[in-house]
Automatic annotation (TrEMBL):
Segments forming domain OmpR/PhoB-type: 130-227
Keywords for this protein: DNA-binding, Phosphoprotein, Transcription, Transcription regulation, Two-component regulatory system
Domain of life: Bacteria
Modified sites of kind 4-aspartylphosphate: D57
InterPro entries with a match to the protein in the record: CheY-like_superfamily (IPR011006), OmpR/PhoB-type_DNA-bd (IPR001867), Sig_transdc_resp-reg_C-effctor (IPR016032), Sig_transdc_resp-reg_receiver (IPR001789), WalR-like (IPR039420), WH-like_DNA-bd_sf (IPR036388)
Entry protein name: Response regulator transcription factor
Gene3D superfamilies membership: 3.40.50.2300, 6.10.250.690, Winged helix-like DNA-binding domain superfamily/Winged helix DNA-binding domain
Response regulatory domain location: 8-122
DNA-binding region as annotated in the record: 130-227
Pfam families: Response_reg (PF00072), Trans_reg_C (PF00486)
Amino acid sequence: MSTLNGVKILIVDDEPHILQFLEFGLVNEGFEVRKASNGYEALEVARDFRPHVAVLDVMMPEMNGFDVCSSLKETEDNIAVIMLTAKDEVDDRVKGLKLGADDYLVKPFNFDELLARIEARLRNQFPDLLGEVAYGPFRIDDRRREIKHEERVLELSPTEYELLKLLVLNHGLVLSKARILDRVWGYDFGGEDNIVEVYVRSLRDKLQDKEHKLIRTLRGVGYRMDLP
């Protein structure tokens, strides 16, 4: 990312070692970080701190992450919420999304993936905090809804823009078709998942990626963006 000045992250978890790990990593990335070990403390910290992003553990005693998410969405302006859950269950994911959560990660998770998701939320909800950001040969400018590849502006439809941005921001990570559908088309999308293949094919054409060196297909798994 180009600059993180003034970007505030609230992390909430009842496990001290996870709080310490996240605080260390996020501070090193340049974020301003506050932490809380339970839901009630999180709401108190949020009132004074006014975070841009909250990273919430779901399974906490007394006040769980779902309740914290619901309260934050009611009291904070335009806060992005990323849920951390130990269970990869669709019901938990859907419940969190219906309460206003913007994303979720299943424990144990890779810190780089969490960082990519935080960056994606900032780009979507707080584009004025960030300038144009470079990732390898790509430059993303959300303010202009524009992506350049090797300094060439790509002519993209709104859906192609969101899909390519998702792949670039999560470069090096494998994204399943289901995850892509959730993030680009919405979790309630009722169409066929082969629509992802159609849009990936279109992006490859526009990127002149005939040999699939940028957008790789992992058969039976999903897609991965590989940057030089």
